[in-house]
Specification:
By secondary structure, this protein is of the alpha/beta class. It has a single domain, classed as NAD(P)-binding Rossmann-like Domain (Rossmann fold, 3-Layer(aba) Sandwich), CATH 3.40.50. 43% of the residues lie in helices and 16% in strands. The protein has an eight-stranded mixed beta sheet, sandwiched between helices. Helix 5 links the parallel strand 6 and strand 7. The radius of gyration is 18 Å and the shape is globular. The N and C termini lie far apart (41 Å). About 4% of the residues have low confidence. The protein binds coenzyme A and NADP nicotinamide-adenine-dinucleotide phosphate. NADP nicotinamide-adenine-dinucleotide phosphate binds next to helix 1, helix 4 and helix 6. NADP nicotinamide-adenine-dinucleotide phosphate (NAP) binds next to helix 1, helix 4 and helix 6.
Length: 282
């Protein structure tokens, strides 16, 4: 299902990093965010909308897509969206075609859909492991292939990963495997597509306020407090801070950065105890 774009005038460009040092001018640019209808990815979509870009978001829930499109439009962005499950190549192709019909080529592609639940490996069924692998790894592949067809050259791809890609963690065998896969896709495609002018990088958020991922990994106030006590900067970040990093990566100021795996986690990946989830696992 495709949701129509609005024809409201866009807000003038602004940059979240500093009014004196613009990092990304989104005017005339198209940004597609897969899984862009909640949490961190929605914050990234908001940041690009504020930069003047037109936005296309996709995810499974028609309500979440409609709500996000309405919010981005209220920020003055031309915005549209479609429902699609990243596990389904046909649905992803159709969503990207709808984006192309509406906005033409894509300038920036953010791939952020993911699945996570805390469970010891012995308690993860074949289907549970497959669900996370298929959303994160196969889903990223589907989004990358569709993106390759529709990305302008030069173009920018940002994959949303996690420190689990390189830090093992009790209760996260499926996610550690999946996010390692995502980062290896980033590095491999940076090699394959660099000569065509496509930069591909991974962004690895740490604990981010008001997000499903953080709630699943720290479901009680006590666990949240303990988690943040292990972060060198002693706080969670906001999705707007992740948005700022993505604006930078999309900008010409990042013109020589590709194949990079960049944590934005207040140092959490340096100090995270591997058994942090023990209490949540029982
Ligand atoms: N512990 C163990 N197994 C679990 C589980 C948990 N907490 N939650 C789900 N599963 C298992 C299910 O039992 C099922 O396996 P089974 O068929 O052998 O019983 C399997 O995972 C798939 O679950 P289902 O709900 O059918 O899959 P789905 O495709 O609808 O959803 C998930 C995928 C499970 C990843 C779901 O949590 C999701 O949609 N997540 C997206 C949002 C998210 O995770 N946000 C955080 C991102 S960091
Ligand atoms: P979230 O709010 O649950 O966002 C996940 C998004 O992906 C939603 O828009 C969801 O929408 C969509 N989605 C899920 N499965 C999908 C599928 N199969 N097909 C299409 N869309 C799908 O999670 P979040 O916590 O903000 O996390 C966002 C990203 O940051 C993820 O990649 C996550 O791994 C990463 N991350 C988060 C944290 C954190 O603290 N939150 C830390 C490290 C990394 P629908 O339900 O409509 O499909």
């Amino acid at each position: 299902m495709v949701l129509a774009a609005c024809s409201r005038p866009r807000r003038l460009w602004c940059c979240q990093m500093s009014p004196d040092a613009p990092c990304y001018d989104g005017r005339g640019k198209t940004v597609l965010v897969s899984g862009g209808t909640s949490g961190i990815n929605r914050g990234i979509a908001r940041a690009f909308a504020a930069s003047g870009a037109q936005l296309f978001v996709l995810s499974r829930s028609v309500e979440k897509v409609a709500d996000t499109v309405a919010e981005l439009q209220s920020l003055g962005s031309h915005a549209a969206g479609a429902t699609a499950d990243v596990r389904r190549a046909d649905e992803i192709d159709a969503a990207f075609a709808a984006c192309a019909d509406r906005f033409g080529a894509i300038d920036v592609l953010v791939s952020g859909a993911a699945g996570n639940f805390p469970a010891r490996a012995k308690d993860i069924s074949s289907n549970g492991f497959r669900a996370v692998l298929e959303i994160d790894v196969l889903g990223t592949h589907h989004v990358m292939l569709a993106g390759y067809k529709h990305l302008r050259r030069p173009g920018v791809i940002i994959n949303i990963s996690a420190a689990a890609s390189f830090r093992p963690m009790v209760g996260q065998a499926h996610v550690c495997a999946a996010k390692a896969g995502v980062d290896q896709i980033t590095r491999t495609l940076a090699l394959e597509w660099g000569p065509e002018g496509i930069r591909v990088n991974s962004v690895l958020p740490g604990p981010i306020e008001d997000t499903e991922g953080f709630r699943r990994l720290a479901p009680t106030p006590e666990m949240k407090e303990r988690r943040l006590a292990n972060v060198p900067l002693r706080r969670a970040a906001t999705s707007a801070e992740v948005g700022d990093l993505c604006l930078f990566l999309a900008s010409d100021r990042a013109s020589y950065i590709t194949g990079a795996v960049i944590p934005i986690d207040g140092g959490a990946s340096l100090s995270l105890p591997a058994d942090l989830l023990e209490d949540a696992l029982g």
